[in-house]
Specification:
Protein name: DUF4216 domain-containing protein
Pfam family, one: DUF4218
Structural class: alpha+beta
Helix content: 25-40%
Order of helices and strands: HEEHEEHHHHHHEEEHEEEEEEEEEHH
Number of helices: 11
Largest sheet: 9 strands, antiparallel
InterPro entries: DUF4216, DUF4218
Number of domains: 2
Number of strands: 16
Strand content: 15-25%
Shape: elongated
Distance between the termini: 80 Å
Length: about 425
């Protein structure tokens, strides 16, 4: 994001690049008038691009309780996010980075997205032992790719920490899931008889409902709010290729169906408008686990109703800088509040939904790291002066005084005299 005072892509980093790297397109340049300029790198955004990204975050409507109001964290004038909470940072890094940074060159976008997916998998509901080895191999390759792109000053202890997180997850064992066990509910015969008689002739419509740890609302209610709780998805049948079809949509109405008998029994149905689940309306990037739906294409079959207990919540985000994707929304699946989802699978679960890990990350490198618009940023004299002072201080701390050199020479001379005395004594004997 190239935030002034925070970015690691500073004049000192560019001087290090000239010293240690062969990226001539990023070296500091001196103009004919004597001014020093810094070529803008392709991994940093211009002010207009940053404002587009901040506008995306500001306009994004997420489910209630999913994050704080990110719109209040947006600073449009400077193009940055301020005052984000730790959970907000997790959401941004795990879900929004692949969308917000999609305008970057592909070979820069890929390793950044791989880091985002790694963190998302690491914090998933069930991190199976069978995929930990793949994660451990992939993060090594991804970190190496990042080291070939970003300046040397960007990498400190925190940037190399993900390499060890897989081993920590392997040794830590189950955390929240160790006391959570699946159980089966007892079905009573009387309940079955009352349900078989069918529902009452009248139904009740409501505009909000909580199920499965999610708070759902109709599209009309969510339209005028900062949050959006109307996005849903459900897994359908298996297609001819063995893949499970997922349906994504928006809640239009919430209907409560009641049954006779005592105690009172009811069932909640969502009347949804579904997007086209075919390849024309839904796309899946299996490598980076990004799902896109075309909001202008609707599901033609009339099958609007779904039971609330079978539905999970999603929200949709548009691309900020890709004009060729104006009709496409990115699907972001949200997690339930106050519960952990767990399937009846007898496998060794380690940490937190099932992680989706690709078996191998591509070893790619961007050929040039200079910005496509060839922008030159002027470097102020104060920045250069601070760098020179810091370099001189480091040289002084590593150098010896003349007195120290003299003492060392004297010590060496005394040792040599002792050796010479020993040699003379042996000759006399």
């Amino acid at each position: 994001m190239d935030v002034k005072g925070k970015t690691k892509d500073n004049p000192k980093a560019r001087m290090d690049i000239k010293e240690y790297c062969r990226r001539k397109e990023l070296w500091l340049q001196e103009l004919q008038n004597g001014k020093i300029v810094k070529p803008k790198a392709s991994f940093s955004f211009t002010l207009d691009e940053k404002r587009e990204i901040i506008q995306l975050v500001k306009n994004l409507r997420m489910p209630e309780g999913y994050t704080s109001n990110l719109g209040k964290r947006a600073n449009m004038n400077e193009g940055k996010l301020i005052g984000m909470k730790s959970h907000d940072c997790h959401v941004f890094m795990e879900t929004l980075i692949p969308i917000a940074f999609s305008h970057l060159p592909e070979r820069i976008w890929k390793p950044i997205t791989e880091i985002s997916l790694f963190l998302k998998d690491l914090c998933s509901g069930k991190l199976l032992e069978s995929i930990l080895d793949s994660m451990e191999e992939n993060i090594l390759v991804t970190t190496t790719k990042l080291e070939k792109i970003f300046p040397c000053g960007f990498f400190d202890v925190m940037e190399h920490l993900p390499i060890h997180l897989v081993q920590v997850a392997r040794l830590g064992g189950p955390v929240q899931t160790r006391w959570m066990y699946p159980f089966e509910s007892v079905q009573h015969l009387q309940l079955v008889k009352e349900v078989v008689l069918g529902p009452e002739s009248q139904v009740l419509t409501i505009n909000k409902y909580c199920a499965n740890g999610f708070k759902f609302q109709t599209e009309e209610v969510s339209r005028n709010k900062k949050t959006n709780n109307s996005g849903v998805y459900i897994q359908g049948e298996v297609d001819g290729t063995g893949q499970t079809i997922e349906y994504y949509g928006v809640i239009q109405e919430i209907i409560e169906v009641r049954y006779s008998g005592w105690p009172k029994k009811k069932n909640i149905l969502f009347w949804c408008g579904w997007f086209d689940p075919s390849h024309r309306g839904t796309k899946m990037d299996h490598q980076h686990n990004i799902i896109e739906v075309k909001h202008t294409r609707k599901y033609r079959s009339y099958d609007p109703f779904i039971i609330a207990q079978n539905v999970k919540q999603v929200y949709y985000a548009s691309y900020p800088l890709c004009r060729d994707k104006d009709d496409w929304w990115v699907v972001i699946k949200s997690k339930p509040t106050g519960r952990i989802e767990i399937d009846n699978v007898l496998d060794v679960a380690y940490q937190n939904d099932v992680a989706i890990v690709q078996h191998e990350v591509d070893v790619e490198l961007e050929t040039t790291l200079q910005h496509s618009q060839h922008i030159l940023e002027e470097v102020s004299d104060n920045d250069l002066l601070n760098v020179e002072e810091e370099i001189s201080e480091n040289e002084e701390s590593e150098s010896f005084d003349d007195a120290e050199w003299d003492d060392n020479e004297n010590e060496t001379t005394e040792e040599e005299e002792q050796e010479n005395d020993g040699i003379e004594t042996s000759e006399e004997e």
